[in-house]
Design goal:
Blueprint: H1 2-24, H2 28-40, E1 46-49, E2 52-56, E3 60-70, E4 73-88, H3 90-93, E5 98-106, E6 109-117, E7 122-134, H4 135-138, E8 148-162, E9 170-188, E10 191-206, E11 209-219, E12 222-231, E13 240-249, H5 251-254, H6 260-267, E14 276-283, E15 287-291
Antiparallel strand pairs: 1-3, 2-3, 3-4, 4-5, 5-6, 6-7, 7-8, 8-9, 9-10, 10-11, 11-12, 12-13, 13-14, 14-15
Length: 292
């Protein structure tokens, strides 16, 4: 019995020393360069940079100042994180199903989730939880043509599909943006800014079609709803819109705006007080709006 404990003690000592030496002598620069090369082979081409890379415990990698961008637009960051922790699932450590867990501090909030990889570059499972992200620190892609968006974002997103054809996958999203506003590129009904208290969106992605199950806006000057479909194009600006919704301004708010009386007259033309129905068609690049 004593010999058994003796050998167990030696084994634990050897394990602790091995782990300590691995962490102390960890080849950070070599691993970082290898990771950068692996990411660069992704499709579409992705560029990864980081100020430093270190091992973590439980086994994983900690990236400080991680920045991801596309090769076609290297000057624009797709994602930045102050700290990004990536750890493998237990199955990955023993040659089973490849799964990675990630935890990032980014844009004033946190992003947590996991990714499950299947065969032939298939992302068989992606789950992401967003908490208190400051949207203005990220910025809305200009291709969407809606202007600058601010507010605090939280929500949950799931996805599965081929990594080289992401728009053809399947996914779901439940997103809430609070205390925000939209500064429009192009004035809408004479408005340059739309403030809101809460914007709640539920959507699904299925084979290149985004179904906006429901979007509700509880604004400081407006309230409204939106639903419909978006047929995605690889060039997002050319995605086709087929949306319908309602918008109802508050008379007191319109009274504070330049041109408020004209706007009030426009909305008073509806059948339900100031509430008007509308449709949006065309593309993100060239949307077509009309009241119904």
């Amino acid at each position: 019995m004593k010999k058994s404990f003796k050998f167990l003690g030696y084994g634990l000592y050897a394990f602790v020393v091995t782990v300590a030496l691995l962490y102390y002598r960890f080849p950070s620069d070599a691993v970082k360069q290898h990771l950068i090369q692996v990411v660069a082979r992704m499709e579409p081409g992705v560029i990864l940079s980081a100020r430093s890379l270190n091992p973590s415990f439980p086994p994983g990698l900690q990236l400080v100042g991680a920045v991801f961008s596309l090769k076609e637009r290297p000057e624009t960051a797709v994602f930045k994180a102050e700290h990004l922790l990536v750890t493998p699932g237990i199955g990955s450590l023993f040659g089973g199903r490849v799964a990675w867990f990630f935890d990032a501090d980014a844009y004033g909030g946190s992003i947590r989730g996991h990714i499950q990889l299947g065969k032939r570059d298939e992302m068989s499972g992606l789950s992401v939880s967003l908490n208190d992200l400051r949207i203005h620190e990220y910025g809305v892609p200009p291709d969407l043509g809606i202007g600058d968006l601010t507010g605090n974002l939280k929500g949950d997103v799931t996805y599965c599909g081929l990594m080289d054809r992401p728009i053809m996958g399947d996914g779901n999203g439940d997103i809430l943006i609070s205390e925000g506003k939209i500064d429009l590129f192009q004035p809408f009904l004479g408005l340059e800014t739309i403030p809101f208290g809460k914007l709640h969106a539920k959507l699904t992605l299925k084979k290149g079609i985004v179904n906006l199950t429901s979007i509700s806006l509880d604004g400081k000057g407006f309230q409204g709803t939106l639903s419909g479909t978006i047929h995605l194009n690889r060039m997002i600006a050319r995605s086709r819109l087929n949306l319908k919704g309602t918008i109802e301004p508050f008379a007191a708010y319109l009274g504070t705006l330049k041109g408020g009386p004209a706007l009030l007259s426009l909305f008073q033309g509806g059948r339900n007080g100031l509430k008007r129905s509308f449709v949006i068609q065309g593309t993100f690049m060239s949307p077509k709006f009309r009241f119904t």
